[in-house]
Amino acid sequence: MHDHHHHHTASERIGWAFALNFCFTIIEFIGGWLTNSTAIMADAVHDLGDCLAIGMAWWLNKLGAKEANNRFSYGFSRFSLLGALINGVILVLGSLWVLSEAIPRLVNPQMPDAAGMLGLSVLGIAVNGFAAYKLNDGKTLNERMLNWHLLEDVLGWVAIFVVSIVLMFIELPILDPVLSIGFTLFILFNVAKNLTETLRLFLQATPDHQLREQILENLAELEHVSDIHHLHLWSLDGEQHVLTAHLLLKQHYQQTELLRLKALIASAMKGFPLSHTTIEFEFPDESCRDDHQSELSHYHH
Question: How far apart are CA 301 and CA 169, in angstroms?
Fold first, then answer.
């Protein structure tokens, strides 16, 4: 129930961001044409890319809320991670495109319509700022990546706002590309960090090394356990984690004692963000069927 509500609110936030961005992109194209400003036109194209990314993220987030089935036994949460990955790539490509447009203008700066830029920048800051605020509560990688889309737009409009005011008093058109390059590099750096994390999770890397060590420690403290191996921790979407582990028991136990051990394991795992947990018991004279695989973690009493 909580998970469904989480997806519902995330979809709602992303839906808001999409609607605001789409409407504003149309205004930008019209405004860019009326003010004859190539900077605003470039931002409009960039915003159009954002709209496509946000629309896709919204669809993937809705898909992520669907119930698990035989084909997708873990559910569809991982699609949200795919959305974050694609959005990150789009944002990196968009930032590189902005740089390719801005760098030549350092050599050949053009004087834009300062008054038109000022008006559109105030509207841009308000619209994108509100959309970023709506997504700020989001915890998923998808929402964090989209927040960078919107923050990039806010910073872009702040740059245009500052430049437009300066240009009203001083003819210094080179400020436009300088600010554009500055904020684009800043966003590119932060998105690269998020994209690296998303890619790691997508490749099923351990989401949190400390969490893994804490889980290993908690299981190792159980009096029945002599060895822990094949402990794997990976994440569906950055929030929902999956754990599997083999526990070698010190001796053969009766069913009542095994039930008590299961209760102790449940207690030891309580509080960890685990959506799916699979624990296998092995007895002293039993060989592990997964032993042909490389061993990552062992604990011996």
Answer: 76
Burial class (CB in 10 A: 0-12, 13-18, 19+), 179: buried
d(CA 300, CA 74): 32
- C-beta separation of 196 from 190 below 8 A: no
CA distance 195 to 157: 24
**Predicted local confidence at residue 37, as pLDDT:** 67
pLDDT tens figures, 129-183: 887 777 776 666 666 777 777 787 788 788 788 888 988 898 887 877 777 777 7
pLDDT in tens, 218-277: 898 888 898 898 999 999 888 889 999 999 998 898 999 999 999 999 998 888 889 889
**String of DSSP letters for the chain:** -HHHHHHHHHHHHHHHHHHHHHHHHHHHHHHHHHHT-HHHHHHHHHHHHHHHHHHHHHHHHHHHTSPP-SSSTT-SHHHHHHHHHHHHHHHHHHHHHHHHHHHHHHHS-----HHHHHHHHHHHHHHHHHHHHHHTT--SHHHHHHHHHHHHHHHHHHHHHHHHHHHHHS--TTHHHHHHHHHHHHHHHHHHHHHHHHHHHHTT--S-HHHHHHHHHHHHT-TTEEEEEEEEEEESSSSSEEEEEEEEESS---HHHHHHHHHHHHHHHTTS-EEEEEEEEE-TT---TTTTSPP---EE-
Residues in the chain: 301
Structure tokens at 167: 């240009």
Q: Which two tokens stand for residue 296?
A: 């990552």
Which tokens is 21 given?
Answer: 């961005």
For residue 64, pLDDT over 70 is answered with no
- Give percent of the chain above pLDDT 70: 88
Query: 210: which 2 tokens?
Result: 């400390």
110 has a pLDDT exceeding 70 = yes
